[in-house]
């Protein structure tokens, strides 16, 4: 598969670009993480020198230890610590949980014990908050990144792991301890001004955020906009059960819009401008459509796999985190009300199921139901197999900024059954989808059941179907890559002009 003409020309050579990596730090990589990975890959292909800004830092050495160690050994340890946190960020949470609940506390898990523990934790949060604010003002709100180049760590045991497959496309990390915490504090207006990320000594031309942040940026670029903020969605303001607090998220959006910003769909741009009461400029240059999360090599590898986890040959795929706005309970009810439930079909749910109220509700709905497969997390090869072999892909989401799994399915030519949302319509137009892309009204359950029943009439020759899907993907991937890279070049070059 040939690269686009933009990658061949290397139009961003000699440019040093930093990207925030907060989405890559999360335990679960969602759509925004795949957007970041695509951005990193394309910037590197286009010739830019790419660095990741991270809140991770070296954890094993204190200042006294460092006094008796060589600079190279310190860098080695710090790099290993950062890479370890990117590979397994959940380890920090496990450690924190262990500290919060000792064996003695576990024995005291009575009503009174819970109250005591809650009070202790709330007190610790308040004390840490005060110390954070004090630290911020002692540093005058200015943070200088500690740079860690990866050129000396290519043989690290962390390289080659699927979760951090983007490492080969970056030159190093810019470690700024707790920078995202301070951005959050500013967004909630605990701080009077935004934290200043000073990248001038590192000769960084531009900083790109993968999500809106309340930060101020200083680079060598004399343009007033030395930061390009990517805005994915508006969901915390439109959906009550989202974990982000609406006040903090609103301020992050507001702060991001005061600099240069871009959006991952026209629908998101229009909605955000409406919510912020700002004029919406109809400019194609501030839209950057994400790339599919699938790739050709994984698809070709998955195409050789005959079976996965005992799944039946006929199945419907749902691929997403199991959260309320994804509306999985609706899909389960539709599946069980259709003829598919009794005609040898499975409903495969590929996505992290959390130990929260909604996750438990979904698990209860699927108890003793043999044709609904809760697969939880799947790796990239398993995900590719599921998309290649599915009879159809379904996503009855209530609200979306974009919908990368929908883009994945449409790029393959899999039949797509999705809620009729503006962002889903954009995806249909983007991939020039045919009649196999069905936009369905969530208020009309009968229509959903009808479309599900139609799937029983399909007689797919999966061996040929898989070959056709890989062929379709190659063609559409190149087209989408071309569009994506053109958008990047337009946005970046506009920002670095003097």
Number of helices: 19
Broad structural category: alpha/beta
Q: How far do the termini sit from each other?
A: 36 Å
The radius of gyration is 24 Å
Total number of beta strands = 16
Q: Brief overview, please?
A:
The chain is an alpha/beta fold and about 500 residues long.
Q: How does this structure look, described?
A:
The chain has helices spanning 5-9, 31-45, 63-67, 71-87, 90-100, 103-107, 111-138, 179-187, 235-238, 246-257, 266-275, 296-302, 328-337, 357-365, 380-389, 404-412, 422-430, 445-455, 462-496; strands at residues 16-20, 49-54, 142-144, 146-149, 172-175, 196-198, 206-209, 216-218, 227-231, 260-263, 315-319, 346-350, 372-376, 392-395, 415-419, 437-440. The protein is an alpha/beta fold and 498 residues long. It has two domains: 5-90 and 126-286, no CATH class; 296-460, Rossmann fold. The strands form three sheets. The chain has a seven-stranded mixed sheet with strand order 4-5-2-1-7-9-10, with helices on both faces. The protein has a six-stranded parallel sheet with strand order 13-12-11-14-15-16, sandwiched between helices. Helix 8 (179-187) packs across helix 10 (246-257). The two termini are 36 Å apart. Residues 93-109 have low confidence and may be disordered.
Protein topology:
Blueprint: H1 5-9, E1 16-20, H2 31-45, E2 49-54, H3 63-67, H4 71-87, H5 90-100, H6 103-107, H7 111-138, E3 142-144, E4 146-149, E5 172-175, H8 179-187, E6 196-198, E7 206-209, E8 216-218, E9 227-231, H9 235-238, H10 246-257, E10 260-263, H11 266-275, H12 296-302, E11 315-319, H13 328-337, E12 346-350, H14 357-365, E13 372-376, H15 380-389, E14 392-395, H16 404-412, E15 415-419, H17 422-430, E16 437-440, H18 445-455, H19 462-496
Helix pairs in contact: 8-10, 12-15
């Amino acid at each position: 598969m040939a690269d686009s003409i933009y990658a061949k020309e290397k139009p961003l050579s000699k440019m040093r670009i930093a990207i925030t990596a907060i989405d890559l730090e999360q335990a679960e990589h969602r759509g925004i993480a795949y957007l970041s990975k695509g951005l990193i890959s394309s910037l590197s292909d286009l010739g830019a020198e790419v660095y990741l800004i991270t809140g991770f830092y070296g954890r094993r050495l204190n200042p006294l230890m460092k006094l008796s160690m060589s600079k190279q050994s310190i860098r080695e340890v710090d790099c290993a610590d950062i890479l370890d946190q990117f590979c397994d960020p959940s380890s920090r949470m496990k450690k924190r949980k262990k500290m919060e609940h000792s064996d003695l506390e576990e024995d005291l898990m009575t009503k009174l014990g819970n109250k005591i523990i809650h009070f202790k934790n709330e007190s610790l949060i308040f004390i840490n908050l005060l110390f954070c604010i004090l630290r911020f003002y002692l540093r005058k709100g200015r943070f200088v990144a500690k740079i860690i180049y990866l050129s000396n760590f290519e043989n690290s045991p962390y390289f080659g792991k699927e979760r951090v497959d983007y490492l080969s496309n970056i030159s190093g990390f810019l470690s700024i301890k707790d920078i995202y915490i301070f951005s959050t504090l500013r967004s909630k207006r605990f701080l009077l001004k935004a934290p200043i990320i000073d990248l001038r000594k590192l000769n960084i031309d531009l900083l790109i955020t993968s999500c809106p942040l309340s930060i101020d940026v200083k680079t060598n670029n004399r343009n007033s906009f030395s930061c390009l903020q990517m805005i994915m969605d508006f969901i915390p303001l439109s959906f009550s059960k989202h974990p982000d607090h609406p006040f903090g998220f609103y301020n992050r959006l507001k702060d991001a819009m005061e600099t240069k910003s871009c959006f991952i769909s026209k629908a998101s741009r229009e909605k955000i401008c409406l919510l912020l009461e700002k004029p919406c400029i109809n400019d194609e240059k501030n839209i950057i459509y994400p790339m599919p999360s699938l790739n050709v090599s994984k698809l070709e590898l998955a195409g050789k796999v005959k079976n996965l986890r005992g799944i039946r040959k006929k199945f419907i795929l749902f691929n997403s985190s199991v959260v309320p706005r994804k509306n999985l309970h609706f899909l389960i009810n539709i599946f069980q009300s259709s003829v598919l439930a009794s005609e040898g079909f499975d409903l495969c749910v590929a996505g992290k199921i959390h130990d929260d109220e909604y996750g438990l509700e979904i698990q209860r709905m699927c108890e003793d139901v043999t044709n609904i497969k809760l697969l939880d997390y799947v790796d990239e090869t398993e995900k590719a197999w599921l998309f290649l072999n599915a009879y159809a892909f379904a996503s009855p989401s209530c609200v979306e900024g974009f919908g990368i799994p929908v883009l994945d399915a449409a790029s393959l030519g899999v039949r797509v059954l999705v809620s009729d949302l503006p962002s889903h319509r954009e995806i249909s137009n983007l991939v020039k989808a045919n009649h196999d892309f069905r936009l369905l009204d969530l208020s009309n359950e009968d229509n959903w059941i009808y479309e599900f029943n139609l799937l029983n009439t399909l007689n797919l020759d999966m061996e040929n179907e898989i070959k056709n899907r890989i062929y379709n993907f190659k063609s559409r991937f190149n087209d989408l890559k071309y569009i994506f890279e053109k958008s990047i070049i337009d946005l970046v070059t506009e920002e670095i002009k003097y």
